[in-house]
Amino acid sequence: MTTATTVIRNASWIIGWDEDNSKHIYMQDGDVAFAGDRILQVGSRFEGEATNEIDGRDRLVSPGFVNIHSHPLSEPMNKGILDELGSPRLYMSSLYEFMPLFRPDLEGMQACTEVALSELLQSGVTTLVDMSVAYDGWLDLLGRSGLRAVATPMYRSARWYTKNGHVVEYEWDDAAGKKAMDEALATIDAADKHPSGRLSGMIAPSQIDTCTPELIRDSVAVARERDIPFQIHAAQSIVEFHEITRRHGKTPVEWLDDLGVLAPGSIIGHGIFLNDHPWVHWPQARDFDRLRESGVAVAHCPTVFQRRGITMRTVGRYIRSGIPIGIGTDTYPHNMIEEMRHALINSRVISGDPYDLRTHHIFDAATVGGAKILGRDDIGRLAPGLKADLFLADLRHPAMRPVREPLRSLIYVAGERAIRDVFVDGRHVVAEGKALAFDLEDAQDRLEAAQRRAEEQFKSLDFAGRTHDQASPFAYGLSTR
Ligand SMILES: [Zn+2]
Fold first, then answer.
1. Ligand 1 center from residue 296 Cα (angstroms)
2. Ligand 1 centroid from CA 167, angstroms
3. CB count, 10 Å around CB of 335?
4. Contact between 38 and 426 (Cβ < 8 Å)
5. Partners of 132 in beta bridges
6. If you measure from the C-alpha of residue 460 to the centroid of ligand 1, how many angstroms do you get, rounded to a whole number?
7. How far, in Å, from the CA of 233 to the mean position of ligand 1?
């Protein structure tokens, strides 16, 4: 059997790779060819035999995005409830008071995942770090999606809760944390062996404040031993900053340093509340320098934080100082391009400077930057011999026109609307803007039903016995006429 060869003929714009300068480069009016899972040629005329030919006129050909932080199993549920909900007595994070109350059941998780994976594919994501608590059928859904997926089963030693809306408490169970870690390692083994060949694993104790020091140290050791990436949520809220300083007399970043986390191969989600963040008033530490000197990476997911009035200060500063930054979609919408746009805007608003963060910085973070953080040199850019993970955007889409600068049209205006086709491993996974693996409308119906079920149980879980619409009131009252 011969390998099918596809050529995208006469692409108007291509984001190729400049090997000499190790950066993306624009090319115009050339071909992109791939056979099996590998790229054969980028730019100029492909003279080889092609089994499939795609008309590239009026198309931008781009490397697919590498998304290093997401929670597909739960986040689609939160649309309509968390959009503008903070906890006024917990520094406006909704992590502690509200997020544990609005959760999907197993059917809901499956529906959430199908919706999130479809949306991610449709926004040009080809590699996804999926941080879920493992559930039946998870790896098969990832395999089915066609994505290159890093299964990242989360585990922890404690859950957080509040009895009054102003103090966060932790219910500890060390043994359960250790057991969950063992199960996560087994899940990672299963991902490595998955018949799709596109799954791998990442070690992820959930959060700095919910895991014992031993669990985090053991996790780092296993990640290093297996040479796979590691990720932990840290420096993500004021509550957590205070909790870690109260427990250890150290900032979250200093505590991560003690635990051996700060090193290449580790990722901090989300690394916002460093000691120099103006809200924490903790001048006698050097968190930013520790990040910069250590090689640890940060997963930047601005959308979920900006809703609560929170942002990194600034992602431009982190990137320019050499801290490896990757982009993730921590929440809905599972739209990588919108996330990139928010990163750019937040950085400029906080710095007051449109030069604080430029389009190329964030496109690099979402492609080669994320790839490098995951330890991969075969994705995130288009060059012969690398994986055929790419997307085509329609330059004739009204939101893209006039096309003077295709990436700016895409990121600042069109977003996912212009993306027509996506390929992973050379396999066509999005056609005509639709993810082929799932029936999105059917998944949305199941998600809708799961959200109604979650609404019903909300009151029984809330410390104050509120209903979901008392906790997160609608924008307008509901007429009873
Ligand atoms: Zn997260």
1. 17
2. 21
3. 20
4. yes
5. 153
6. 25
7. 6
* Number of residues that make up the chain: 481
The domains of the chain, with CATH numbers, are 5-63+383-435 (2.30.40.10), 65-373 (3.20.20.140)
- Give the pLDDT means over successive 10-residue stretches in the chain (481 positions): 88 98 98 98 97 98 98 96 94 91 93 98 98 95 98 98 96 98 98 97 98 98 98 98 98 98 98 97 98 98 96 97 98 97 98 97 98 98 98 98 98 98 98 98 98 94 94 94 86
- Angle at alpha carbon of residue 198, lines to 191 and 122, rounded to 5°: 115
Place of tokens 């059928």: 137
Alpha carbon distance 165, 425 (integer Å): 48
Per the structure block, which two tokens stand in for 306?
């900006």
Q: Where are the alpha helices (DSSP H) in 166-212?
A: 174-192
Q: How far is the CA of 69 from the centre of ligand 1 (A)?
A: 6
313 alpha carbon – ligand 1 mean position (Å): 18
Q: How far apart are CA 41 and CA 384, in angstroms?
A: 5
Query: DSSP assignment, residue 64?
Result: P
DSSP letter for each residue of 383-420:
-TTSB--EEEEETTSTTT-S-SSHHHIIIIIIGGGGEE
Name the residues around ion ligand 1, CB cutoff 5 A: 330
Q: How far apart are CA 145 and CA 118, in angstroms?
A: 8
What global pTM score does this model have?
A: 0.97
Q: Cβ distance 48 to 40 under 8 Å?
A: yes
Separation of alpha carbons 147 and 150, rounded Å: 9
